[in-house]
Each structure stands twice: as structure tokens, then as C-alpha cells.
Amino acid sequence: MDNIKVLLIDDEIEFVETLAERLELRGYTSKIAQDGESGISMIANESFDVVILDLMMPGLSGLDTLRQIKEIDKALPVIMLTGHGSTKDGMEGMRMGAVDFLMKPLDINELLEKIKLALNESLKG
Amino acid sequence: MFKKVTDTLFFLNTADQDHYRVLRRNIIVIMLLITILPLATMVVINYFQYKSHLKSQIIAPLYAMADKTKHSFELFLDQRLAIIRFISTTYNFRDLTNEMNIKKILISLKKECCGFVDIGLINSQGELISYAGPYSLLDKNYSEQISFQETQIKGQYISNVFMGFRKYPHIVIAVQHLTENGQTWILRATIDTAFFDTLISSMGFSRQTDAFLINKNGILQTNSLYYGKTLEKCPLELSKITFRSNSFGGTDDENRDIIIASSTFSIADYILVIVQPQSVALKSWYALKTEIIILFLISITIIIFTVLKMTSVLIERIRTSDEHRENVLSELQHAQKLSSIGRLAAGVAHEINNPLAIINEKAGLMGDLIELSKDFDKKSKFIELTSSILNSVSRCRKITHRLLGFSKRIDIKIEPININHVINEVLDFLEKDVLYRKIDVTLILSGSLVTIESDHGQIQQILLNLLTNAFAAVEEFGAVEIESKNMDNGGVRVKISDNGCGIPPDVIKNIFDPFFSTKKEKGTGLGLSITYGIINKLGGKISVDSKLGEGSVFTFELPEKPNDLEAIDG
């Protein structure tokens, strides 16, 4: 389970940088993309073990980004983040192949749990 | 013009209670006017028509009766004259001067023809030559008397009534006889008038009807019921008696309301008078008048009663419908207000959520870094502080998520739902109420509850309504039990029981009707009908069971999937 590479796609730089740092502290390698397009190009050039994707972003929306990620690598586990109380987009995302969704603000332990679950799932798959 | 009038009468802009009072008054006044006015007019017209009609109906027969009675009298007198005339032509002067003969004649007159008292023969000089009768009148000279003179001129004479020696009223009849040799003599007879009374009574008048004879000087010739005895002066004015009209006679000197009918004799100086008190004559009119008045009063009473009753019902209907309209309006406004509050809350929550996420991560990182660093002064205090920040953020998160969740109620959308989660959300929302009123809430939630496709917000609304009602029904320290269960057909059943006041059977019948409320001013009466409507829309059903004083159980079932998705989206 060493050196798990996590890609964080979120336009809220303060949030995503801090989260990346916290993941690093826990032994993950984390990279940041500030919008959907750059995230997709990073996935195309590099390999990641898991993607954490915000649903509310300017430009390419979370769900569109998810669709394109799935086109590139169908097996790549994606965990979605949403600022909404609504679970609608989260459900839609899961229908499109995301493994799970979490609501902001995050509980870091819950996130780690979901990442582990997602990786297990993908190893099994 | 008409519209203006109706507007001022019925569309009033006064304060509420006043408005109904004034409206009620106006409706009553107008309805009474348009019903009673024509009725009263008709009654008055009828009254006068009947009156004049009946009067003529009553007066005409009275005159006919007077004429008939007069004819009877005239017939009687004519007969007596004819008899005397017959005697004068049958016997010659000499025969009649014979006392024996004249006495014989009187005897046969008395025998054959009632009323004759005496008979006498008067020569052209006015001297009574021969006489048969109870008096000794022989050799009396009549030449100065009106009876003699009048008989000489007219050939016959009927006198007014006079009192004879025996105090019996009498009349004298006389007939002049002219012989071929130019000699004249007069045959004179006295007749007892007792027969007059017999004649009047034989006409069959009612007991209160007075019929009598007077002469042209107003002296009574027969006894009168009201106006004195024979030969007394009649107090009625002669002009009043003889004036023939269709109107009522008016009053006599004793203020009696009377009707007078009269008929004047042609062969004698008599007038026949019939006096009838109005109370007798107009008995049928008085009866009719009473009937008309009673009928009128009954109609008026019925009209007034009906108008009052109908107006009350009408005003009550208007008032209820106004109240319903206001309730719907305020419910609509309430819903709109809630909706905009919801949107506002959602906007605020969403805006706060992002910085909250940043605080969460920063504080989290701070905590991570402190934990990883070597011991330093007050390290444990810092750990405590960061975890306190994280706890506060977590509380904020709960609030923003709840706000976001509730704001979605207005948008109908179908999604997978675990009812247990919704129950917990709603209970979170009602937490304050539960704690404050110390209500004991028991949850019996099925651990393996199926996820159903339904509308999250609408289910929240259902649960919120039912739980609010349940909490309102129980006293302090009351108990509310919420149970969720899978159904055999794939749906979910939720049962909410309370041990509160219960619902009376007559209320249960109407409990899901719109606007049915027992909370009076506090409730809109829409809560349970909305609940019922939502559950129906989601393809489910709701039922209620209650015992007064023991509590109520509301049970609703929702299917695995709503039957008609399109209808819901619409």
C-alpha cells in the first residue's frame, strides 16, 4: 500500500492544498489539479491510484470531468466531493462509475476509509 | 346605476366582523322589502275590493227586502180598501143607514178578514149617519178633519196610526162612493194594526234587525226594536233614512254602527225602514277581514323567519368560504415564504460550506502537524484546541447540511431513499421540541430497511407533519413511537404512535379533509390534507386509528417506486 498516488481535482486552492498536505503526512503521494481539463491531462500523462474530484467547479463540471476520466481509464477509482446537501449529483456520479461520494467539510478519517475501500475494490476488480 | 347600488349594498369595505353584520342587515332589509311590499300592497288592494264588493252584496238584498216588505204592507192595505169599496158598491146608501145591516156587515168583516174594529157611514156633509163598533160615535161631524177632506178629493184615504180608546194602535181607511145621481158618501173603517207586527215578523229578519214603519213626520207607526214605541218620534233623521246609497249607513244617535234600507209607500204616508247593526250585516265581511289579517300576519312571520334563517345560513357560508380563502392564501404565502427562506438558507449554507471546508482542513493539518512534532510547551493544550475547532466545524457542517437538505423540499425529484435516514433528519430538526417538552421518543427502525425510490423532500414533509401532530397531541413526558418496517410487496411502512389525547370518531371521518382543523386559529387545517395528498402522489396510502384519551396511530405506506413518475415530475 506504499506510495499511493492521489490526484486531487478542486478549484478551491486553499482547501485542496491543505488536504494534499494532510494526505502527504499520512504517506500518500498527492498531486493537485485546479480544474477539470488539467486534471484530465494529468491522468492521461501519469498514472494515479485514486482520484478525488470536486463536483462544483468552474469550466468543465465535475460530472463531465468524471465522464472523460472514465473514458481514459475505466478502472481508475474516483471519489467525489460535493458541497451540496443534495445527494443527487453524488448519485448520478455513482451511476457513472464513481466509487463513492463525500460531503464537504470532510472528515479525514472517513476519506482515508473510502480511499482504502476504493483501492480494495479496484484491486479486486 | 344598478351595479352601483348593489356594490354599495353588498361589497363593503369595513372591518371584518362589522362587514358581515352590515351585509346581513342589508340582505335582510332588501329581502324583506321585496317580499313584504308586494304582499302588503296586494293585501291592501284585496281588502278594499272585497270590502266594496261585499258591501254592495249586503246592502242590495237589504233594499230588496225593504221593497218586498213594503209590497206586503201595500197588498194588505189594498185588500182592506178593496173590501170597503166592494161594500160601498154592493150596498146602497139606504141599506147602510140601517143599523142592523151595518152591524151584520161588521160581523162578517170581522169573521172573514182580520183587523176590522168598526165601520161607519159618513154623508157628504161629514156627519156620521150609521155606525157599527165599540164606540158611540153617532152624529159626530168629520167635515173639518183631514181624513174627510182627503177622501173627498182622492176618493180613498189611509190614515196614520193613532191610539184608540182601548189604547190599541189603529188606522182608519175610508172610501168615497159616488152614486149615479151625484150623491156622495164615505164608508169609513178602523183597522187594528196588530197585523203590522205579524207581517214584519213573518219576513224572517234576524233578531238584531229592526224593521218598522214611520210616517213622513218621523213618527213611528209600529214598535221599533231600537227607536221606541208606536207614535213616538223616531230619533233617526228622515233624510238619512230615505237617502239610498251603496255606502254604509253610519251611526245613529246612540253611536250604533248601522245600515239603513227604506222603501216609501205609494198608497199611504208610510215609509218602511229596515235598520241592521253593521256587526250583523257585515258578519261575513268581518270574518273575511280577520282571515285576511291572520293570513297576512302568518305570511309575514314565515317570510321574516325564512329570511332571517336563510340570511344566517348565507352569511355563515360566505364567512366560512372567506375564511377558507384566506387560509389558502395565507398557506400559499406561507409556502412561498418557506420556499424563499429555503433558497436563501441554501445559498448561505453553500457559501459557508466552502470556507468551512477550508477551516476544517487547515485545523486538521494543524492538528496533524502538532501531533507529529516533538513535545513542546503546551502541546496537549494545542491538540485540545485543534480538536475543539474540528468539533465546532463538525457542528456547523451538520447545520449547513440540514439547511441544504430542507431547502430541497420544494423541488420534486425521485431518488433512492432510506426512510430511516429521513426519520433521523426530521427528528434532528424537532430535537428542541423533544428536549424542551421532555417527550420520550422511541425508534423501532428496521435495520434491513429497503431503499425506495421516492421524493426526499416530500417524505420529510410527511414525517414533519405527522411528528409535529404527534408531539402536539401528547402532554409533557408523553411518549411517541416511530416504527419502520419492510412490506411484503417491496414498499415501506412507517407507524407513528402517540399516547396523547386521541381523536374523536367524528373528527377522524374528516381528518384528511382540507381546512378541517381542531386547532382553530393555530392551524390552517391543511397539514394532514397535504400529507394525504403527498402520500397519494407518491403512490402510497395513509390510515389513522385512534382511541379517545389513549392515543393515535398514523400509519403510512410508500411503494418501492412511485407508480407514475411523469405525473410526479409534472
List keywords for this structure.
heterodimer, A: 125 residues, alpha/beta, Rossmann fold, 5-stranded parallel β-sheet, 5 strands, B: 570 residues, alpha+beta, Beta-Lactamase, Heat Shock Protein 90, 6-stranded antiparallel β-sheet, 5-stranded mixed β-sheet, 16 helices, disordered C terminus
Structure explained in plain terms:
- The complex is a heterodimer of chains A (125) and B (570).
- Chain A has 5 helices and 5 strands.
- With 125 residues, chain A is α/β, with parallel strands linked by helices.
- Chain A has a 5-stranded parallel beta sheet, sandwiched between helices.
- In chain A, helix 1 (13-25) links the parallel strand 1 (5-9) and strand 2.
- Chain B has 570 residues and is an alpha+beta fold.
- Chain B has 16 helices and 17 strands.
- In chain B, the strands form 4 sheets. In chain B, strands 1, 2, 3, 4, 5 and 6 form a 6-stranded antiparallel beta sheet that branches. Chain B has a 5-stranded mixed beta sheet with strand order 12-14-15-17-16, with helices on one face.
- Chain B is rod-shaped, with a radius of gyration of 58 Å.
- Classes of the chains: A alpha/beta (125), B alpha+beta (570).
CATH H-tier superfamily of chain A: Response regulator
Which parts of chain A are unreliable, with pLDDT below 50 for 5 consecutive residues or more? none
**Helix/strand class of chain A:** alpha/beta
Number of domains of chain A: 1
> Mean pLDDT across all residues of chain B, rounded?
82
User: What CATH architecture of chain A would you give?
Assistant: 3-Layer(aba) Sandwich
Report how far apart the termini of chain B are: 47 Å
Put the structure in a nutshell.
The complex is a heterodimer of chains A (125) and B (570). Chain A has a single domain, classed as Rossmann fold (3-Layer(aba) Sandwich), CATH 3.40.50.2300.
